[in-house]
Amino acid sequence: MAKHIGIVACSAEGAALCYRTIAVEGARWMGEHDHPEVSMHNHSLAEYMKPIYRDDWAAVGELMLSSANKLANIGADFLICPDNTIHEAMPYVKDRSPLPWLHIADVVLAEGRRRGFKKIALTGTRYLVNSSVYPAELVRPTTEEKDEINRIIFEELVCSQFKPEAVAYFQRVIDSFQRQGCDAVILGCTEIPLIINDANSPLPTLDSTRLLARAALQHALA
Fold it and tell me: Which domains does the chain have, with CATH numbers?
């Protein structure tokens, strides 16, 4: 029996991509149209942004725990969260959680090690790139780049707006990482893979959304 995957969702587009990846790629492991049981709970992004704006990560953790408890009550065996930013609240969550979690950064960094990358850059929301979710040695965008990436994420990507101008901006930022000697870039907002991938990125990408979905599949089927 495959384990029941619980998704603690935050922003809709990233959570949808994660769920879709589990459903589609599950068939490669289990047979046509098959995948493990999946349940999702989502407080609105607005409810998450209220404590994020005031830097109240304990309150973010309470929202995550609320979802975790609901998913545990309907039979999930373990949890994933397809949102890098709110992993900053994980220290408030993990010891009180009713179920174990797969940590998105652990999954992404393990893939980076497996592929032999030596100098990795990080993209994501301003809150993520300023946080301790990923190691300090990763290369970060400049302050100006952080602000524009943050704007694109919250004003466009989470609202299902995918513009050529946004693609071009990310390509310029990633090109600057390449010129700094980076050999890969983490797509550290789960919406970024909707516009950037290995086909249009100057550097190889570490797609946090799909990597987490695949790790969940492997864990469910172990």
Answer: 5-103+210-221 (3.40.50.1860), 105-207 (3.40.50.1860)
